[in-house]
Amino acid sequence: MEASESKLNSETKGKVGQIFPHFMARVAKSEELAAAGYRFLVNFRQGLEFIRRPSIDKTSEIFEKVIKANNTDRIQSYIKAGYVHTSSRAENLNKLNTSHIQLLNSTSKAKDIINELECLVEDVKQAIEAASETSQDYQNTDLDLVSATCSEEGNVSFVPEKPGDVDYATMVAVVYSMVKQDYAMQEKIVSSLSLKTSSGELESYCLMWSLHPFVNDEIMHQAWSLIS
Asked: What's the mean per-residue pLDDT of the chain?
């Protein structure tokens, strides 16, 4: 057994060890894009909420008194514009359009990162599988991305104090699964945005985006600890 394990380590440790930092570097890039995407989403929400905010209650006595006391061309222009300064409306329309474009661009870049991560996952799997052909102890190693998930308690117990090649590979599979699910959620949010998106939906989208419900912070912390 020791001989077969040594065989696996000698053939995969160098390659898997080289892949893992590159994999986590791309994960870090995906986190940067997610953070930027959240800012763009908040800007989109602010712009849309400003544009469709309810107009002033014109039946108010105070409103009527103010208009009568200041019945100037400037006030009349303000009323015709829907009680919104023309410059403010233009500014928020531009903010809305720009934010949407930024979200689309950010999602496209995030998709590229996901594809790169998938390639790195395949590289790790191939390295392990190649060594497993001559190591019976590791022939049943399961790196299925579907089965590589967190426990119900949210804890991770598969990383020992001295991780080996299979431990690194399993971490890659789990982190990739989380990041991919988080991206899929963000993509659905961006694709559903429109001028008809309700305030409640926008609030929920911003909340879910900021929470990263598919990403386990403890697992990410352990993943980064493997770099050192």
From this structure: 79
